[in-house]
Amino acid sequence: MDNLNLIDTFSEFKELKNIDRATMMSVLEDVFRSVLQKQFGTDENFDVIINPDKGDLEIFRNREVVKDEDLEDPNLQISLSEAKKIDSDYELGEDVTDEVSFKDFGRRSILNLRQNLAARILELEKDNIYNEYKSKIGQIVTGEVYQIWKREILILDDEENELLLPKTEQIPSDFFRKGDTVRAIVTSVEMRNSNPMIMLSRTSPDFLSRLFELEVPEIYDGLIIIKKIERVPGERAKVAVESYDERIDPVGACVGMKGSRIHGIVRELKNENIDVVNYTNNVQLYIQRALNPAQVTSIRINEEFKKADVFLRPDQVSLAIGKGGLNIRLASRLTGYEIDVYREAEEDDEDVSIDEFSDEIDEWIIGSLKSIGCDTAKSVLRLSREELIKRTDLEDETVDEIIDIFQSEFE
């Protein structure tokens, strides 16, 4: 149109991703018709023809030819004398179609039009991003670190959409610099102040599940299913898997030859120790597998209270418990049973339960010793002073006093 260059505005609109042409044309027409309504009071007698490829449009107004003395609404009617100036063949009752020039609207109307169009474009873009990522919840996305804050990291995807990775959803050993590539799972998408807020996570069990799908074709194809995942991000994870095909070893398929498949996952999770166990409905066998790498001697199950007493050789107790009790805690969560470990009865009549020393040792200290699998005096003395301090987190003087009490029992 004369004196109105909308090419820049059209270009902005055309750059939008996944906006269909029908929606584009509809929004543009709505914006222009809103200007016509403000200018003329109605837009019903106007035809808006948009050409987004060229960046221009044409607006035509239709008016009825009336006698000069009967002219009441110049927007809907045109006098016969004026119509004759356009074409001498016009007669009363016919429709006259003429082009409307935006240069007659004034600078303020044109400015409002561009602002309204930009606002509608931005609104469409936000809705599009929201809908796109709403469908990606539970999927892995890749982006580039753009900005790092104390509580979260701003990540940009390939289309420069903003994604947030909170500190609480990062693996403790994660360390990112601007420009680094990050993989994470989409956990939630919501609108805040009309802006899409896309949250990511690297600590979710679903993130580990999706990584297995990427690395293990049998899981992606549905031949192997992941029954349950329990993890302490960056430390240890236990994954229970089951195969629908008896010919496929689910654990072997997940680990890969010489660990080829699981190594990529471990690296992505900053060397998180991953135990893959074969799921079974046999509770005792399932608990035994969940306590890997410890070798279990026997298990006593209490179905009513969902508890399991596990008996092991003395040298296997620390393996079952794990560093800081991590292994037994994850095994309990994986199986759904509260697991207590006990040393297998030893052929040593001289050994004494540490409960017998309750008059000399505080109950909370006895509890600390039991938490690392030491329930007899000799089981405590088998550990070095340094190991006792490290594993129980007791004071040096307290450990020395305990050792003296137990040693004096057997002197």
TrEMBL record:
<protein>
    <submittedName>
        <fullName>Transcription termination factor NusA</fullName>
    </submittedName>
</protein>
